[in-house]
Write a structure and sequence with these properties.
The chain is built from 19 helices and 11 strands. It is an alpha/beta fold. It folds into 2 domains: about 180 residues, Periplasmic binding protein-like II (D-Maltodextrin-Binding Protein, domain 2); about 200 residues, D-Maltodextrin-Binding Protein, domain 2 (3-Layer(aba) Sandwich). It is globular, with a radius of gyration of 22 Å.
Length: about 425
Amino acid sequence: MSKLTRRDFLKGSAAAGAALAGNALPGAARLLAQDNPTVDYWHGFIAEFVHAGFEVVLENFHQANPDITINPLTVPNSEFMTKFTTSVVGNAAPDTTMAAPTRIPDMVAIGGLQDISGRVGESNLMDTIPADRWDGATIDGAIYGVPSFMFVDWMYYRADWFEEAGLDPPTTWEAFTEAAIAMTDADKGRYGFGMRGGNGGQGFVVKVIESFGSPIIDDMGQPAMDFDKAVEALRWYTDLHTVHGAVPPSVANDSFRQLMEAFQTGQTAMLWHHTGSLAEMRTVLGDEGAFSTAVRPHGPAKQIASATPSYNGISMPGDGEEDASWEWISYWADINTQVDFLELTGYFPSSALVAEDERVQSNPLYAAAVATVDEVGPPTRFPGGPGWERNVVLPNFQRVLLGEITAEDAIELMMEGLEEAISG
C-alpha cells in the first residue's frame, strides 16, 4: 500500500459519497420535525489527516441526507471540558458532541447529555455493536452516546530493528523488558522504548497498575487500589528508565508529539499508542517493513491495553432538531462509514461487522487491533477520574522518574488522592 496523502483523501470523497449514499441507515428516510435543520457538532479532529477523513464523512452524510446541515466546531482536547461546561451552564451547548468515556460521567452530571436509550432501542444498532461497547456511555442503565469508533491500544515496533536483532515483538512484560534493554544503545542515541512521561502519561500508569492485578475502583465505585500490586507495577514501569536506562532521558517531558517523532526518526524501538495514530505512522514511514503493529504485552494479571470507544451524543434540546441530531450521530455507527473512516485515519470501528470486512481482513497492520478488541474493555472511568489522573497520578509518576520519591511514596499519594477525588 502506498503512502496516504491529504490529496488522496479528498480525491476519493465524491466516489465514496456516492457509494455510501445507498447505505444510509434506515432512519435517514424519516421525515424530520424541522425542515432543513442545522445540527451543531463539537469534535476534536485536529490532526490534518484525521480532519481530512472527517471532511469525507461530512460530504458522504450530506449526500445521504441533503436536507440536514452539519455545523462542525473543532475543540482542542485540552480545552474541551472547560468549554463544554461553560456552554451547558450558559444554555448554549451544541446540538451534538463527541464524548470520551472518561468525560461522560461529568458531562451527564452537569446535564450536558440527553438520555438516548429510547432511540437506541428502536434502532438496529444493538445488533451490530456489541453490548460492552455501550458501557462507556451508559450510566444507571441510561445510554448517552452512540459508539462511533474506537481507539484500540496496540504497540508500534521497528520491524527492521527487530529483524536485525533476530527478536520477535514481546508478548509479556518480562520479554518487553528484555527487548527494551536489548534495543538500547545510548551511545548511538537509540532506546528500546518511548515512554510517555509527560502530559497524557497518566493513562499508561493506570493501565500498568491494573495489568498487575490492582483495580482502581470496585463495583460500587469506591477506591480499591491494592498497595503492594500497585507498587510492583509502578516500580516495573519506572525501572525501565531509572534502572535499565531503556527510555530516552527526556522521558518526564515526553508527550505524544515527542514520542511519535522519536520513533519515526529512529530514536526508539517500541512505542505504545493506539490505532488513531496509524495514518500518520504510515504516511511518515510507509508500508515497506520499517515498522509494524503488535498486541501490547500481557502483564501478570491482564493485558496492558484497553479499547476505548468514542461516542457521539445529543447535548441540548433543539426545537425539533433532535431527529436530525439522531440521524447524524447514528450515521457514525454504519459499518461503511466506520471502515472508510478507518482507512483514512486508523480510527477503528465499533461495529462487530468489522471482523467480516475484507478491507480490514486484507491489511496486516489491523491484525493487532482485531486480536485485541474483543479481549479488553474500556478504561476505568468515574466522576473526578480525569482530574485525579492528571493532577495526582501524573506528577507523582514524574517524581519517581526524576528520582525525587520512591514508587511506594507515589502509590501512597495516588491512593490518598483517589480517596479525595471520590469522596469529594
